[in-house]
Amino acid sequence: MTGYVYETCCVNSTGPLINAMTAGAHEISRATFIRAVDRDSRRDIETLLGYELDARRGLTMARDWAVAYYRSTYDGRPCVYFVWSAIEHIFTARYGA
């Protein structure tokens, strides 16, 4: 499990897909999440959400106690996701990987 890329968030998905994903989810550590996702994809979404990439400059996602990480399936494909401000941000395996 590595190289997962950002696919979508719950706001841009459908209720049935999100409900199925969250129903079968298992919480994972941030370290497990980091090992699973593509570094650039993760850094892009963290920056978009306003997190600093350098802890000396401010709050990082890693230090935000309100973010939780999960493993599940999304639309029949393995995924990992994090919940931020009650929004699921979903990373899936690249097609053909």
Short summary:
The chain is an alpha+beta fold and 97 residues long.
Commentary on this structure:
The protein has one domain. The chain has three helices and five strands; from the N terminus they run βαβααβββ. The chain has a five-stranded antiparallel beta sheet with strand order 1-5-4-3-2, with helices on both faces. The protein has helices spanning 15-23, 30-36, 39-48; strands spanning 5-9, 26-28, 68-74, 77-84, 87-92. The mean pLDDT is 92. 27% of the residues lie in helices and 30% in strands. The termini are close together.
Strand order of the largest sheet: 1-5-4-3-2
- Count of the domains: 1
Distance between the termini: 10 Å
Class by alpha and beta content: alpha+beta
Mean pLDDT: 92
Helix percent band? 25-40%
Low-confidence stretches: none
Strand content: 25-35%
Radius of gyration (Å): 13 Å
What sort of overall outline do the alpha carbons produce when their principal axes are compared? Answer: globular
What oligomeric state best describes the polypeptide chains here? Answer: single chain
Instruction: Quickly count the helices.
Output: 3
Largest sheet: 5 strands, antiparallel
Helix-strand pattern: EHEHHEEE
Number of strands: 5
What attributes characterize this protein structure?
alpha+beta, 97 residues, single chain, five-stranded antiparallel β-sheet
Helices, strands, pairings?
Elements: E1 5-9, H1 15-23, E2 26-28, H2 30-36, H3 39-48, E3 68-74, E4 77-84, E5 87-92
Antiparallel strand pairs: 1-5, 2-3, 3-4, 4-5
